[in-house]
Amino acid sequence: MSTIGYESWAVDLAEVGAVYPFQGSEVLMTIFGVIFWVGWHRIQFVREGKHLEEARRAGDPDKVREILEKY
Amino acid sequence: MDGNLNALTTVFTEFYYWVTVVFMFLIHVGFCMYEVGASRHRNHMHTLMKNVMVIPLVTVTFFFFGWWIYWAFPDFPFFGGLNHEAGNANLPWSETMGTNLSDRITGVFWAAFLLFSWTAASIVSGAVIERIRSSALWVHAVLIGSVWWIIDAAWGWHYAGWMVKYLGYHDAYASGVIHAIAGGYALGVIMVLGPRIGKFAKDGTPRDIPPHNPWMLTIGIFLIYTGFWGFYAACNVPAISPEAIGGQITGTTWTATNIYLAPTSLSAITFNFLMSLSGGLMAAYVVSRGDAFWTFSGGLAGVITASAGNDLYHPIQAMLVAAVGVVIVYNLHYWVERRFKLDDAVGAVAVHGYAGVVGLIISGFMLWGVPASPFEGYASINPLGQTLGALIMFFGLGFVPAWCVAKMQAAAGVLRIPEEVELQGLDYAEHHAYEDAKAAIIEADKAHLAASATPAE
Predict the structure, then answer these.
(1) Which of B35, B47, B213, B269 has the fewest CB atoms within 10 Å, i.e. the most exposed one?
(2) How far B424 CA sits from the closest chain A CA (Å)?
(3) Cβ distance A17 to B101 under 8 Å?
(4) How far apart are CA B283 and CA B295, in angstroms?
């Protein structure tokens, strides 16, 4: 048993195609991949909104002035 | 890979594109340095993160659907349906989109296009620094990097694209398909986003916001130049026989070709890259009176202006086209800034967008009547086709979608950061944490010293 479909390399390479594991599950992998991508945007979007909301109230005027001077 | 010649050509082509990809990575490094150098101290980390995360987001989406668009859309939707045969082979679940010993080209060819996608997204990223929300920019990055530019590539940067067939569109090194569209896209976003606080005086006079670190800018743009070499090479097919092209070329002489499979050579584009870089630098130095920012950017704008025809121009033509383009771009930038009160933080709209448009239009005249393709029945290069192509790139696929999406984001209140945060800086929280951590560890060290030190004798 081999996850890539070949148990030895005693093969004619001209007849070898895909060699990645779990061939046949490409659509499922794509679905997982898309969920990972969209989920990432969702998590980042929510966190950034919260962070900006907190940050707008966090500025100490003296420190902000210092930062502005620092350029 | 039957036969030694076929095997050698395949392995050479595989390695060739791989090298171009590594070189092109420097474009992104350069853009990151340029953006950070141009931003103020209080925004450094967020500016950097904004551009770094373009890499994974555009990569995964280009894998999921961008690459399929390129192969499926050459005629779609105006001159035919989707090309399912070519498209299906490049879907994310296709067997060739992975480790496959019978296909050694798809991965490196995909990556070469992907690096163009990063560039398109990164161009937009520079224009909007210090006031856009990262989440908003990353949506735009996916749209320009994995949707809009690759649609334009299918139409105008594919040997069978409808713009090539019917308009005679010719854009060998992507004046339009990367630069004009990305510049137009950036313009659409900044028009809705608005300028940074303080950019314009009350009477509307624009203020310069000088870069925080000009040296970082300089190294950044030199890295972009370096990566651009790889970009040029990546736009070619390195070695192909007339038989493999299958067009009108006769004989058995192998050649390098541009993306349209029309003949050119690496030597030709090396001449022209260097001469257009030089023409751009020299013109920018004169027109900006030696301003370092504009002189360096002018070198880039010069190459971009000449890029549409740099597979065929004479080197002196490349130099002069670049110089003319840079003078137009420089003046247009300041006119637009004053007239429309737009804040393009790194000059991206000008250096990429206007230069791309101007380059396409000039190439329509310079290459009038030249065959755009080796295949029979295609329109030849002409000024009208190139001008229409420029408008499609800059406005149709760049400005309009960007403006619409940015409008929606602005309406939802998720485009721009709050004014208070813009003043205190996006890195304020991180600076706070840094200063607190620093103070705490200094106190801890002092306490340890006080407890353990023995008095000096």
Answers:
(1) B213
(2) 5
(3) yes
(4) 8
Task: Quote the tokens at residue B145.
Answer: 């990097």
**Is residue A3 one of the residues assigned to a domain?**
no
- Chain A residues within 8 A of B60 when measuring between CB atoms: 33, 36-37
Contacts of A43 (CB under 8 A, 6+ apart): none
Strand, helix or coil for residue B241: coil
> Residue B131, exposed/middle/buried by CB under 10 A (0-12, 13-18, 19+)?
buried
Contact B99 A14 (CB under 8 A): no
Q: Is B240 helix (H, G, I), strand (E, B) or coil?
A: strand
Residue A34, domain member (yes or no): yes
Cβ–Cβ below 8 Å for A44 and B135: yes
Q: How far is B421 from chain A (nearest CA, A)?
A: 5
Q: Which residue has the tokens 């092109």?
A: B24
Interface test with B, best of A2, A45, A65 (most B CBs within 10 A): A45
The pLDDT tens digits for A8-55 are: 999 999 999 999 999 999 999 999 999 999 999 999 999 999 999 999
The Cα–Cα gap between B181 and B178 comes to 6
B380 three-class SS: strand
| Cβ pair B414:A18 closer than 8 A | no
What backbone torsions phi and psi does residue B198 show, to the nearest 5 degrees? 90, -5
Q: Report the alpha-carbon distance of residue B220 to residue B153 in Å, rounded.
A: 27
Q: Is residue A33 part of a domain?
A: yes
Number of domains in chain A: 1
The whole-number pLDDT of residue B441 equals 94
- Residue B383's CB is within 10 A of a number of other CB atoms, namely 17
Yes or no, beta carbons of A49 and B424 under 8 Å apart: no
The model's pLDDT over B84-120, given as tens digits with 9 standing for 90+, comes to 999 999 999 999 999 999 999 999 999 999 999 999 9
Q: Please give the Cα distance from B255 to B264 (Å, whole number).
A: 7
Domains and CATH numbers, chain B: 4-238+255-417 (1.10.3430.10)
How far is B159 from B148, CA to CA, in rounded Å? Answer: 18
Q: What is the mean predicted confidence (pLDDT) over B174-186?
A: 98
A54 occurs within a structural domain: yes
For position B457, what pLDDT does the model report? 63
- The parent domain of residue A62 ranges over 24-70
**Which of B100, B101, B119 has its CA nearest to residue B173?**
B119
Chain CA centroid to CA B380, Å: 27
Convert B21-41 to b/e letters by CB count within 10 Å (16 or more is b). Answer: bebbbbbbbbbbbbbbbbbbe
Give residues with Cβ within 8 angstroms of B396, minimum separation 6. Answer: none
**Other residues' Cβ atoms within 10 Å of the Cβ of residue B103:** 17
Residue type for position B408 = M
The CA distances from residue B151 to B65, B71, B77, B242, in Å, are: 11, 9, 11, 28
Q: Give dist(CA B76, CA B172) in Å, integer.
A: 22
